[in-house]
Amino acid sequence: MDLTRGDMERVNQLILSKAGSDVQMIPEVANHLISSGGKRLRPMLTLASAVLFGYKGEGHVKLATSVEFMHTATLLHDDVVDESDLRRGKSTARMIWGNQASVLVGDFLLGQSFKMMVEVGSLEALDVLATAASVIAEGEVLQLSVAKNMETTEDDYLSVIRAKTAALFAAAAEVGPIIANADKAGRSAMRSYGMNLGYAFQLVDDALDYGGTAADLGKNVGDDFREGKITLPVILAYRRGTETERAFWKTAIEQGESSEENLEKALGLIKKYDALNDTIGRALHYGTIARDALAPLPASPLKSAMLEVIDFSIQRVN
Amino acid sequence: MDLTRGDMERVNQLILSKAGSDVQMIPEVANHLISSGGKRLRPMLTLASAVLFGYKGEGHVKLATSVEFMHTATLLHDDVVDESDLRRGKSTARMIWGNQASVLVGDFLLGQSFKMMVEVGSLEALDVLATAASVIAEGEVLQLSVAKNMETTEDDYLSVIRAKTAALFAAAAEVGPIIANADKAGRSAMRSYGMNLGYAFQLVDDALDYGGTAADLGKNVGDDFREGKITLPVILAYRRGTETERAFWKTAIEQGESSEENLEKALGLIKKYDALNDTIGRALHYGTIARDALAPLPASPLKSAMLEVIDFSIQRVN
């Protein structure tokens, strides 16, 4: 999004400076993940939504950085929880510095994130972001308790991605109009845009895991399968399958028999039941809601750019 | 502290309610630790320091609960980082529900903690507590990077306990006068009281690990030794020791040869060099500073009670 490029430069600088510490291990661990080429979609939402409502101050750069730190902290903790070896095609921090450093540096970034929010001084923005922090953690625990359970329903799955992904997208977009002192309708519009974009984004991510290539993805096809993660492509293929096919999924996901041979078989079943296309179909549904959330706002180059973000998020998969 | 008993009851109720969630695992994990008989010294500091400065509202109960949640979150993460099996004489949450749940429920409590602070609405209190959250995490990383290194100096160690313990005591005591709109001198007095009490408390804890009995302590003599933790009794005994004794400490702590026989030997060296008494001596030093921090304040039953907390914290060890 070219329109926020200048602000984004300042976010990048603030990220580096606030991840700094006299304790040398902190910037090492933090920068490993921060510099690994994330899309920075969440902070961009905060910048764009503030500017869209005419915000003139400096607070949006701090809030955008806070949002990115919350996200980074979550990734550091997630990799520990999921015992992941790779993230965005690089070794995870926990593989290099250990689980301990990943947990603690995540905590540090969360603390820095809240400090920056406090500096901005908007209690409403603080409320939105602190609530998101709780909801994200709650969603991760929920994911843990449905993990490796093939009876997980599409509704359960949607609850998980609402909490672990959509809630932060929603908060990132909502704090823009808040600090710009926009009216309630403006806040609701941006919250809805963010929330539904978040759903679409996560659904596409989950589809890519069974269909993209490692270069696009920064991860390999089948990573979710190998970790026994239950995502929508798997849920759909399982629920639409025969008795024998369901038994296969149980063995593969619940008992962790995730050989390459089984991955091939899983990909075959996902294709057989059109589960990837239907996952993208769901993403398109949320994308449409996100688009309509912006409908009442007057046309502007920034609004157009935010609409393009929806298309970009969905068209990553082909 | 009888004088805050009514408020403390309400903190206990709020703890239970804010640790609640529809995700069943969250209250299970949280309450396991919360109900394990911690002293609740930190929230008591917040309650007492608010009332001492004439605070009449409800915010101190929420802030006290926030402080206890920050502490609980830290303990959950600490047990993961230290790979601890026991805490306060009970199995740690990670032994029952796994590291994953401990990390995530800790994150949830941190989120809930910030939400409650935001509800109170004091940006100054938020600033103090958010800063403490960063400093605590920074201190834990520092502790990680000095771990099992026998060349750790007393100054390094003091930096660690300042960050991981004293900073939260200081913040807990400082937010009281802040929400009571006390003047700067009042804030500084309570911050200094909390900070120095925190140092004294941690030093005594570290001494107890080589001298108390399991019943007092909720842990066993030698736990720190078995985990290879470097605390002041060890630092003093090492630095005062002969070449041969230093070689022993290196083997025991750095190479983890922490047999019962080696623990006996370590206890003997600590006694030989009076390292336990001198650790308590350091605690008394900080206790005196904490006492003097309160000196300018007018006499009151609450002030007397806060002075007694210093004595109580130090006299746990005998």
Automatic annotation (TrEMBL), chains A, B:
Keywords: Magnesium, Metal-binding, Transferase. One of its GO terms (molecular function) is metal ion binding. It catalyses: 5 isopentenyl diphosphate + (2E,6E)-farnesyl diphosphate = all-trans-octaprenyl diphosphate + 5 diphosphate. GO terms for biological process: isoprenoid biosynthetic process. CDD domains: Trans_IPPS_HT (cd00685). It comes from the Bacteria. SUPFAM superfamilies: Terpenoid synthases. Its EC number is 2.5.1.90. InterPro entries: Isoprenoid_synthase_dom_sf, Polyprenyl_synt, Polyprenyl_synt_CS. Its cofactor is Mg(2+). It is an enzyme of class 2 (transferase). Belongs to the FPP/GGPP synthase family. PANTHER family: ALL TRANS-POLYPRENYL-DIPHOSPHATE SYNTHASE PDSS1 (PTHR12001:SF69), GERANYLGERANYL PYROPHOSPHATE SYNTHASE (PTHR12001). Supplies octaprenyl diphosphate, the precursor for the side chain of the isoprenoid quinones ubiquinone and menaquinone. This is Octaprenyl diphosphate synthase. It comes from Rhizobium soli. The lineage of its organism: Bacteria, Pseudomonadati, Pseudomonadota, Alphaproteobacteria, Hyphomicrobiales.
